[in-house]
Specification:
Elements lengths: L1 H19 L1 E8 L5 E8 L2 E9 L6 E5 L6 E6 L5 E8 L4 E7 L8 E3 L2 H26 L6 H23 L6 H9 L11 H7 L3 H5 L6 H5 L2 H14 L5 H15 L3 H17 L6 H13 L9 H14 L12 E3 L10 E3 L7 E7 L4 H16 L8 E7 L4 H10 L5 E8 L3 H4 L7 E5 L5 E3 L8 H15 L1
Parallel strand pairs: 1-7, 11-12, 12-13
Antiparallel strand pairs: 1-4, 2-3, 2-5, 5-6, 7-8, 9-10, 9-13, 11-14, 14-15
Helix pairs in contact: 2-3, 9-11, 10-11, 11-12
Length: 473
């Protein structure tokens, strides 16, 4: 009896192993790499999953005794560059795919996998339609062919709309079409007046109105979802103000709800981008919002204690220098370095409406160039009836004699202060961790700019700031 059970178990295990085996063969014309890799998408990264050598027939055959999760995958060449096209693993674990070295849809033929056949056929039709549309748009420029081209354009748009509807929502759509359908964006109806706002506020509708719970892992590893996420925040909202970006993050997080894996997918992409930005105005405020409202409130359970500790430190440091915050008053010594009350100079007590805090280092070549340009600007405004700003230039150099020597040798028409004596740590309160750094304060000495503007942009910035204040009031 034991032998029978043992034999039965062996037979079941053998059948299971056979059923789980995979065998993918790629015959790629023009590909002569000795090694090829299969990789999985994860946001903007590719995770290497398997590799194989080119066999004597010129094929790349991947085989083994496991089952691959459903999803959209990439081929990666020996030099680390991704092959242009993707393929899908959906249902069949055994197939042969013939194509050119780019996996161009029109060149692909597949045996043993209907999901791949349908995917590449769909993409070939889309590519052909794009070529037709490009030809039509060229003829739209010619008055003699414009009328005919307009009719062909309308016919092509209607035909492709019907094609996509039938393909994406036909009977038994494969994983690829479900991902595409969930990540698509609809055209804004002509009746909508504020088209940009409508497009933005409905951008995520299909994703959250679609049930993709059974392909959740595949969705998180699809290039479609990453492209959608990246385009929304760093395409559409790239120049949006911080309040708008924060509002959209909150809306998206609310729709994600309890899906921790999806929230992490989104936040792991957004948080470092907003934190590392040194040029984008207001992005530091977006990062602070994410830190205070999500990470530091325990809404990101994947964050480690070490991550939260560093985030808390950075948040307390950065929030002091956000646009709209009141600028800390600095009291520093002038070039005499005489420690007496009359030689302590305040950054706030000037009659001008604005103060430009200029943190610079005489050893920094870029600081030297920018300081010279700033000096030229200040000189050009010397006789202006309305001198709107004072430059409070902080020598970002511990070597006081070197700083003073540079000032003697170069024309610096600023209020020059420096040295080790200062009432507060300006590196912390103004988030100064490099030179040059520019902070602009208004008449209330609130921060109105915390990014280093090109000198040529200072006057236009102040003009625009005053214009906005007049409009808002």
């Amino acid at each position: 009896m034991k032998k029978i059970i043992g034999l039965t178990v062996w037979m079941v295990c053998s059948l299971w192993a056979s059923a789980q085996a995979y065998d993918f063969t790629f015959r790629l014309d023009g590909m002569d790499d000795s090694v090829l890799y299969i990789a999985r998408h994860h946001r903007d990264q590719l995770l290497m999953m398997d590799s194989t050598h080119r066999n004597p027939k010129g094929d790349y055959r991947f085989s083994g005794k496991r089952s691959w999760p459903r999803g959209i995958y990439a081929l990666v060449r020996q030099d680390g560059k991704k092959v242009v096209g993707d393929f899908t693993i959906d249902g069949s674990q055994r197939f042969t795919l013939k194509a050119d070295a780019k996996l161009s849809p029109a060149s692909v033929s597949v045996k043993g996998c209907q999901a791949n056949s349908r995917m590449f056929s769909y993409m070939a039709t889309i590519d052909e339609a794009k070529q037709q549309m490009e030809s039509i748009r060229q003829r739209l420029k010619d008055p003699s062919t414009k009328a005919q081209a307009e009719a062909e354009e309308t016919e092509l748009i209607d035909r492709m709309h019907e094609f996509e509807q039938n393909t994406l929502f036909g009977n038994s759509p494969t994983l690829f079409f479900r991902v595409v359908a969930a990540c698509r964006e609809d055209e804004v109806p002509d009746s909508v007046q504020n088209k940009a706002y409508h497009f933005r506020t409905h951008f995520w509708d299909h994703l959250f109105d679609t049930d993709w719970s059974d392909i959740h892992d595949a969705m998180l590893h699809s290039p479609n979802l990453y492209s959608k996420l990246n385009y929304f925040f760093f395409g559409m909202l790239y120049r949006a103000n911080s309040d708008t970006i924060c509002r959209e993050i909150d809306r998206l997080a609310a729709r994600i709800g309890d899906d921790t894996a999806l929230l992490r997918y989104v936040f792991d992409h957004l948080e470092p981008r907003y934190f590392r930005s040194t040029k984008n105005i207001g992005w530091d405020a977006v990062w602070c919002h994410m830190a205070s409202e999500y990470y530091l409130k325990g809404r990101c359970p994947w964050a480690t204690e070490g991550t939260l500790h560093n985030m808390r430190y950075n948040y307390n440091r950065i929030r002091q220098s956000l646009i709209g915050a009141h600028g800390q008053e600095l009291l520093m010594l002038d070039t005499t370095q005489i420690d007496s009350p009359e030689h302590w100079i305040s950054s706030h007590r000037f009659p001008t409406r604005y103060v430009i805090l200029w943190f610079w280092d005489p050893d920094c070549h870029h600081c030297q160039e920018q300081s010279a340009e700033l000096a030229t600007l200040v000189d050009s405004l010397r006789n202006a009836p309305d001198r709107r700003f004072t430059v409070y230039a902080v020598g970002y150099e511990s070597d006081v004699p070197k700083w003073k020597k540079y000032l003697r040798e170069h024309h610096m028409p600023f209020v020059n202060v420096g040295g080790p004596n200062v009432n507060v740590d300006y590196q912390e309160v103004y988030n100064v961790h490099g030179a040059p750094t520019m902070i602009i304060l208004n008449e209330r000495r609130d921060i109105i700019m915390n990014k280093t503007l090109p000198v040529k942009s200072i006057i236009p910035f102040l003009d625009n700031y005053e214009k906005q204040r007049t409009t808002n009031h």
